[in-house]
Amino acid sequence: MVRKNACVLVVEDDSRMLRLEQLTLEKEGYSVTLSQSGEEALEILAETNPSLVLLDIGLPGMDGFTTCQRIREFSQVPVIMVTARDINKDKVRGLEFGADDYITKPFLASELAARVKAALRRSSSGAEATSPSFQCGDLVVDYAKNRISKRGEEVLLSSTEYRLLCYLARNAGRIVTRDQILERIWGEEYLGESHLLHVTIGRLRQKLGDDPKRPRYILTRRGIGYSFATEPVAVPVQAGSSASGY
Ligand code: CA
């Protein structure tokens, strides 16, 4: 269930757009905090604890990409990037900087409401634990503490990355298809949006220190999906292994 009193931090410099987003979200029952710059948004985020950030890319001063990157240095809050027009490059870039989803201007109020609701639903569903922890070599997923560590060092993940990792880890040794992952982690309305998955897997591998060409943990099953290794794959792997690339 999505908390109806969830607070959304909206970051947008265009006051007309800001007002529109505010009205839409308030109509859905969320409380809304407004900010017109990335710098200010970071301060608000550090002081308050919003449930979600709606973040425009085109901002004066620090742009949305950098703001998102800075947010990820200390927070797992779900971030929806607002991109101008249908620029694919921007969508992928936003995801690479740690955003959980994006919405393209111009959008309908109903579309914004649906994206926000879906993101809040995902973040509140958390990761269901079947055992208290999972270990693959030097990588430990502590479900109870929501903590990932590698060689004892904590690895900071966004909420989407964390949920994705937990889902793969819980299915370690089994192949999960791209659509199974998209449906589980993002929701059924995201089926087919495989670039979301590719970029998030790429980011996750990077944080785990996993080389996409020779992954040790998250293995690519070409044309099908991914599987999490039960034991880290020894490096170097033979060239032409089915586990290479993504
Ligand atoms: Ca703007």
Descriptive account of the structure:
By secondary structure, the protein is of the alpha/beta class. The chain folds into two domains: 7-124, Response regulator (Rossmann fold), CATH 3.40.50.2300; 133-228, Arc Repressor Mutant, subunit A (Orthogonal Bundle), CATH 1.10.10.10. It has helices at 15-27, 38-47, 64-72, 88-96, 109-125, 159-170, 178-186, 194-208, and strands at residues 7-11, 31-35, 52-56, 79-84, 101-105, 133-136, 139-142, 147-150, 153-154, 175-177, 218-221, 225-228. The strands form three sheets. A five-stranded parallel β-sheet has the order 2-1-3-4-5, with helices on both faces. Strands 6-7-8-9 form a four-stranded antiparallel β-sheet, with helices on one face. Residues 240-246 have low confidence and may be disordered. Bound molecules: calcium ion (CA). Calcium ion binds at residues 12-14, 56, 58-59.
